[in-house]
Amino acid sequence: MIDVAKFLGTWRLVSWTIPDEGGVPRHPLGSDAKGLLSYAPDGYMFAALMASGRPRFLGGDPLGGTAEECRAATHGYHTYCGRYRLEKDAVVHTVELSLFPNLIGQEQVRYYRFDGDRLLLSTPPLLRNGLSGVAQLVWERVRHD
Questions:
Q1: CA 104 – CA 78 distance, rounded (Å)
Q2: Strand-pair partners of 47
Q3: Tell me, what DSSP letter sits at residue 89?
Q4: Closest residue by Cα to residue 36 from 145, 142, 116, 131
Q5: What is the pTM of this model?
Q6: Helix (H, G, I), strand (E, B) or coil at 1
Q7: Where are the beta strands (DSSP E) in 40-142?
Q8: Residue 69 DSSP label
Q9: C or N terminus of the chain, fewer CB within 10 Å?
């Protein structure tokens, strides 16, 4: 029996790598990427990951910006949210909203294991920021002391 309580709460990204064929880790959003992942008791989740140091827009309109500003902003950001369910060895995210429209309506399978206060997720082979392979994401539980 899968204990959903182990997933509940917010997790901060420690690392996101896609190792190459030789096992050398590659970082889709850089080695200092930032991210949050949250699982709620109502069955919804969100994931947001970004490259550090993304350039700011010159103007203050978050829905404005030049084509170059918009491209740079989206190039260094990956996010989606929707419902989740637990299966034998995987958590399955059913995407309802996403920065990348092609994910909407898709299922994102993440194989999981826990290591203390860390959640380790791996994916089936995928393509992210030009890197292909099995992604490995390490998340650490956010504590509010």
A1: 13
A2: 37, 80
A3: S
A4: 142
A5: 0.91
A6: coil
A7: 44-50, 77-86, 90-98, 107-115, 118-128, 131-141
A8: H
A9: C
